[in-house]
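Possible race condition, two jobs.
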Amino acid sequence: MVRETRLTRDDFVLPLFVCPGEGVRREISSMPGVYNLSIDETTSDVSAAYDAGVRSVILFGLPESKNEVASGAYAEDGIVQRAIRAIRQSTPDVLIMADTCLCEYTSHGHCGVVRGGEVVNDESLELLAMTAVSQAAAGADFVAPSAMMDGQVGAIRTALDESGFENTGIMAYAVKYASGLYGPFREAAQSAPEFGDRRAYQMDPPNVREAMREAEIDAAEGADILMVKPATIYLDVLHMVRERFDLPTAAYHVSGEYALIKAAGQKGWIDEQRVMLETLTSIKRAGADIILTYYAREAIRALEQIK
C-alpha cells in the first residue's frame, strides 16, 4: 500500500539484434538468453514478447556487409528497415524504436565518418539524418541517435520534418558515457572499433556538469526523450537529468550490467530474479520513466508472479 516506486510493464523497452539470413537464432555468448535474430525470428520474438506484455522494442542491425560510409544504415532495404516493416505487419500495435548510429555499419566500427584517422563530426551528421529518415519511412515510431556527434539531434529533427515525419519522435542518447560495460553489446552488434576507442565523442565517466550541458543541447535541438547510458552506475546523473529537464527520461540498463547479474545468477551467487527487480527498481527510483533492458520479458513475468 505504501510502496513509493512501482515497476510496470509499460516502463520497459526490449532491445533486439537483427541479423541477415532466415531461421537464425544465435545466442550471444556474453549475454545468455539474448540472440542475434534473423527478420523472421525477430518478428516471432516481438509477437511473443507483445503477448507477454512488452509494449516497446528497440532494434539494432547487423548488415550483410559494411563499408566506410555505413550505407547499410540508411539503405531503404537495410536490415533494420526491413525488420521494421515486417514487425509493423505482424505486431502493428508495438511501439518500434530504431537505434540511429553508424557503428554497426562502418567497416572501421566508429560511430561516424573517419578521415585521416579522426571521426569527422559534421560529415557524419548528414549520414545520421539520412538514417533517421529511412527508419521513419519504414515505420519507426522513434529514432534513437546514439552516435554522440555534436548537433545530431538538430540535424535529425530538421531532416525528419522536411521529409514529412514531424510526428516521428527522437529519443536522444543525450548522456552516453565511454563505459567499460558495453563489451557484450559490441559482440552482439559486431561493432567494436578497429582502431582507437570512442572516448573522443562519448563522455568521460567522472564528468557530470558536462552531462547537463549535453542534455540541455539535445533538449534545445528537439529531443522528445533524454537518455542516460549506462544506468546503474550513473544513477546520480540520471536523477539530475530528471530533476533539471521537463522531458521524459530514459535509462539504458546496458549489456555489461545485464551480463553481471546473469553470470552471478547462473553461478548461484545471487538470486537473479530478486537482484534484477531490485536493480530495475533503483533505475526507476532515480528518475527513469523508460528503461531499456534485456530483462524486459523476465521482469514482466516476475511482476506478474508477484501479483
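Job #2 (started ~2 s after job #1):
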Amino acid sequence: MVKKLKSIKQNKESIHMREFALFLLSCLFLMACTAGLAQSETVVPDTPAVPTENATSPAPTRTPVATPAPTVAPTSPSTAIAETDSTPLIHHFRASVRKAATGDVAVFEDNGSWPPVKGQAEPGDTIVFEWETTGATQATLGIHLSQQVPVDASGSFTYEAKPDQCGCVMFSLTAINGEGQADVATIHIQFPCPTSLFFSPGWRSDCCGQCANFGCPEPVFTSDAAEQHFEHGTMIWVKAQETIYVLFEDVPSGSERAAKLFADEWDPSQPDHDSSLVPPDGLYQPVRGFGLVWRQNPEVRERLGWAVDQEAAFVTTVQRVPGYGRHSSIYILALDGNVWHLQSIGFGCGWSKITVD
C-alpha cells in the first residue's frame, strides 16, 4: 500500500513538472513572437492595404503597440516635387536690341556666366527685355543699380535708350518667392563712349562689366611727374594731383593691398633726406616728397626697401574711368612709355602694368 501511494505521488510530481515545462516553453514562444512582431512593426512602416477581390479582413490577433515617431519624417515624392517647384528659377532672360538707324534686331541672353553677357547698343535704340520664371511670386528689374522696377514674374519690359546714353548699363532681373529665396540674371549693355583710353583706343573695348569700369573715360590731362624704383616696388608722383602712389610688389598685382596713395606734403623748407639713414652700397635713400612718405610710414619703408635708382622726372598723361561706388580706374603713363593701371577695390587699391605696343 505504501509503495502504491509513493508511485501515485511520483506520477503526480512528474505530471506537474511536465506541465510547468510546457508553461515555460509557451511563455518563451509568446515572448519571441511578441518581440518579432514589435521589431517588424518598428522597421516596416504601415502602408494602406491593397484590396483584392473577395478578400476578407482577418480578425486582429494582437493589440497594436504604439512605436515612437521618427525624428525626421520621410518625405514623399510629391512633397519633394512641391518644394522644388517653389524654388524661384529664371528659365531665360534676354535683351532684343532694335537699332534705331536700321531696324535690325540683335538678341543677347544671359547664360549664367561671369562676367555677365554684354550686348551693344546705340543712343536712341529700343531694348526689349523678356523673361520667364517658375516658383517666383514677384520680380524686379534693376537698371544700373539706381532704379528698381517691379515687374511680373514672367513678362517683358521696354527700355528706350536716351539720345545721350553712353557707358555701360547693367540690367538685372531678380525673381523672388514667398520665402525670400531669389534667382538673379544679369545683362550688361554697352553704349559708345565719346572719349577713349589715351594709350590704345581699342584696348579693352569689352571692359564693360569685366574690370569695374562702367562709365566712360574722362578727358585726359598731362602733369609733371617723377618715378623711382625700389627693391620691392615703385613710387610715382603726379604734381597736378599732389599725390604720391606707392606700388608694392610683395602682394600679387591687382590685390587691394598692393598700392597706397599719399598726399604730397613736402615743401622746400623741409629737409629732403635723413643723413642718419645710410643705404647699403649701390642703393639709395629717397628724397623730397618720396623721402618724406618713406620715412614717416614704417610700413612703406619696410615693404619697399631701399631705392635701386634715383628718382627721374618726366611728363605723364593721366586718365580716370569712373565705376560703381568706390570702384574706379586711373591710368598713368609710366616713365618707360607703358601704362600703370590703378584700380580701387573696396577700401584698398590694386595695380597692374599695361605694355603698350
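The two ends are 136 Å apart (CA to CA).
Logs attached separately.
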